[in-house]
């Protein structure tokens, strides 16, 4: 294995570990904030819950990936990770306002509202990622 790969390995592991930690924290907060138990619903084969949560995870991961590609420090990643999480939670809140029956819809397995939430989360994540290019 070339030496430059081995030299880059500590940075790779640091950024990967930080990104996974940010993702775990975001998902934990997201699961706490939403009024339904996505994990239980997904275990119960609720496609709507899986679609909605997947959109939020992807919407959060896109800005994180972009920051990793463009940041100089792990501190940059941490700060922008918090921003990405707040933006995703704001997107969910906007969906909740636009769809006042969202809680019941997700619990009932209605895929259309869940798809809207996922699309909104991914779109906001993509825009968020683009804005984090500096």
Form type: elongated
Question: Structural class, from helix and strand content?
Answer: mainly alpha
Give the biggest beta sheet.
none
Count of DSSP strands? 0
Strand content: under 5%
Q: How many structurally independent domains?
A: 1
Which stretches of 5+ consecutive residues score pLDDT under 50? none
The whole-number mean of residue pLDDT values reads 95
The percent of residues in helical segments reads over 70%
User: If you compute it from the alpha carbons, what radius of gyration comes out, rounded to the nearest whole angstrom?
Assistant: 17 Å
The ordered string of helix (H) and strand (E) elements is HHHHHH
Distance between the termini: 33 Å
Task: Give a description of the structure.
This protein is mainly alpha-helical and 134 residues long. It is built from six helices and no strands. Helix 1 packs across helix 3 (47-70).
